[in-house]
Write a structure and sequence with these properties.
Elements lengths: L1 H24 L11 H11 L2 H7 L1 E4 H4 L4 H5 L4 E4 L10 H16 L8 E4 L17 H7 L2 H16 L5 E2 L23 H16 L12 E5 L13 E2 L3 H7 L4 H6 L4 E4 L3 E2 L2 E2 L4 H11 L5 E3 L12 H11 L4 E2 L4 H13 L5 H17 L19 H14 L1 E4 L10 E8 L6 H5 L19 H8 L2 E7 L11 E7 L17 H12 L4 E6 L15 E4 L8 H7 L43
Parallel strand pairs: 1-2, 1-11, 2-3, 3-4, 5-7, 6-8, 7-10, 13-14, 13-15, 15-16, 16-17
Antiparallel strand pairs: 8-9, 12-17
The chain binds beta-D-glucopyranose (2 copies).
Amino acid sequence: MRKISQLVKVMAAVLFSLQMSSTFAQVPVYQNPKEPINKRVEDLLSKMTLEEKIGQMTQADNTAVKAKPEDIANYFMGSILSGGDSKTGDNTTKAWAEQYNSFQNQALSTRLKIPIIYGLDAVHGNNDVYGTTIFPHNIALGCTRNPDLVEKAARVTAEEVLATGSNWAFAPCIAVTRDERWGRTYESFGETPELAEIFGAAQVRGLQGASLAGKTSVLACAKHYLGDGGTTGGKDQGNTVADEAAVRKLFLPGYIPAIKAGVGSVMASYSSINGIKMHGSKFWLTDVLKKELGFEGFVVSDWAGVDQLNPDYTAAVDSTINAGVDMVMLPNRYVDFFSSMKSLVSSNKISIARIDDAVRRILTIKFKMGLFEHPMADASLVASVGSAEHRAVARQCVRESLVLLKKTDGVLPLPKSGKKILVAGSHADDLGNQCGGWSIAWQGKSGNTTIGTTILAGMKKAAPGAKIDFSAAGDFADSKADYSVVVIGEKPYAEGKGDTTDLSISKDDVALIKKMKSYGAPVIVILISGRPLIIEKIQDNADAIFAAWLPGTEGDGVSDVLFGDFKPKGLLSVSWPKSMDQVPINIGDANYAPLFEFGYGLTSF
Ligand code: BGC
Ligand code: BGC
């Protein structure tokens, strides 16, 4: 009898524990990938505290949390980014992936285990990280007139981004650049809305792949909304003066196909329209972007862009969140943001409905990306970073974006053997110079910054049978030659620092070309720049001129055309002014008389 009752007790205990464990094993709806996304979002949202919701709207820079990674968990952060100078360890893909995983583990240690999304400026390849494939900047890609190629390039970028764990690229920049003095001209596909429409959508498709859930898909971010390329004087973060109809005609069109292509995020612009800062514009962010255009993704602010709205931080947060910004790129002030948000909720200045809308948008994207199922970096992608296959795509972008501005019969293409070629100029053998800004460093930098092929190295590879002598300064022991190639242009720069009122070729470069011409051989000039330069002073001494823009790591693309393996085919994505008096100059202007028109480019030798 006693034995039986003991047995019953044991069996009851076993049954109880089985029941308990099956209760534990029952995953909540939001963690079940078989449930529809909207149900998962609502389930998760219903479980979240206010603090957890504010956390999802928070994006801190890597440098802000590096020393205190547990704050990712303490503040329930939804996102981390790396700004242009926010590096990790030795800046290799592997170091980035390790850091990403450790940050992700912080997020996954929280009660609800909501993964972070990690953003970075992969604007021409995964350009911040050492050893990646760096593509030409957008202004060059616009000259290819080849959206399929640009989509393919963005696919490559997506893989190289994901290899670091990062899963969000702050690209495409679909600025329509209207003033060459703007230091971000090169981030734009060109001066017409059509180029932004065609190439913006192509880059979105490439980055996000067929679906955000794809194994090699990263979240894209159309930026900077709205009117960034139209500021007076080309001033970065400046003011665009235009009536609503003009804004809709020039700057809005690019966003429409990008949204149709499913772009999951949009970045607000630092700039203003008619004096109203975009970070505080409910009209453009909520009424137009979200309601009228039906954008269902989320809006992220630009780096400390919120701070510019009001010296009182809480008031600044109030206006930006109510204007429609869903996630704030702080990048440092997460403690302030947290307390400002809490006080704005308790004073009823920000409604829970607005917060729920923001968080719903962010979570929807995270679910669509499959982040809850696959939160960690995919180590299998590391091998593809900087691979020959990837570099071949970049090389094709380089050769298709070269614009032949001037030629003299019989000079091009260069023969691959039997002749002597002098090569000169500060940009002939300098990888950093040919990559430009947003390359390894925020502002870019000169020198041997990463792995790649300089233009000089590309020439030597293409023409092993030619005798190629190089001197940056153009000093040669024997200056008698058959050809001279001079590679000159702008030194790297990015936002802010790149604004200028003088786009003339430097005095030194004018003198160098003159010197090379005096040696007697025909001079072929290759311009490396983020925008048209005033070439008046070199034109007479140059027998041929190419605009090679900022080609990135694959200098071979230049020799592909120089030595005649491919015909030049790039067509200008911007009008090329004769002089600074003509700037700004755009197709459709009254009295339009540039040196080279929009769409110009010689396509044979
Ligand atoms: C730039 C953005 C960039 C962000 C993050 C800002 O200063 O305007 O284009 O995505 O920094 O680096
Ligand atoms: C960051 C950039 C950012 C810039 C804005 C830099 O320190 O690295 O990503 O765009 O600051 O001022």
